[in-house]
Specification:
The chain is mainly α. The chain has a single domain, classed as Up-down Bundle (AhpD-like). Helices cover about 65% and strands about 0% of the residues. The protein contains seven helices and no strands.
Length: about 150
């Protein structure tokens, strides 16, 4: 049972979160790449609502079932491009901080594929989906009801 309904979250907060989301989505970074990153964060954080949402968004973007089912083991497959692999690696590093600094070699992986402004936006996007997963898990927002474009 939901602890706090989505509609009970103060609109001032939701407005700011959605403004940031819109900025990220309109930043020029490929939407499928952003959604792969978001789904991976949702998997790592065990957020059923976010897994449902981003799986549906990726299906809408015509992502393949093979890549969707393999995302959780992306390092063991050859289904993802070097750029996607760099984002997924960076995503895992920033999501599983464990109180450790970001190593230079981890930063270099992402730097090889993106300009500085894009790295800032990707970092913000990873932080943003981590915020969403924490909100959804804390409030126990029910999974399965998300509709793309709705």
């Amino acid at each position: 049972m939901e602890r706090i309904l989505f509609t009970e979250i103060p609109q001032e907060i939701m407005g700011k979160l959605f403004d940031l989301e819109n900025y990220i989505n309109n930043s020029g970074i490929n939407m499928k790449l952003l959604e792969l990153m978001r789904l991976r964060v949702a998997q790592i954080n065990g957020c059923a609502y976010c897994v449902d949402m981003h799986h549906k968004e990726l299906k809408n973007l015509e992502e393949t079932d093979l890549r969707l089912s393999s995302l959780i083991v992306w390092e063991e497959t050859n289904y993802f491009t070097d750029k996607e692999r760099a984002v997924l690696h960076f995503t895992e590093i920033l999501t599983k901080l464990n109180g450790k600094p970001i190593a230079d070699n981890d930063y270099e992986v992402i730097k090889g594929h993106f300009e500085k402004k894009e790295i800032v936006i990707l970092t913000l996007a990873i932080a943003q989906i981590n915020t969403w997963t924490r909100l959804m898990k804390t409030f126990q927002i029910e999974a399965g009801n998300y509709k793309v474009g709705g």
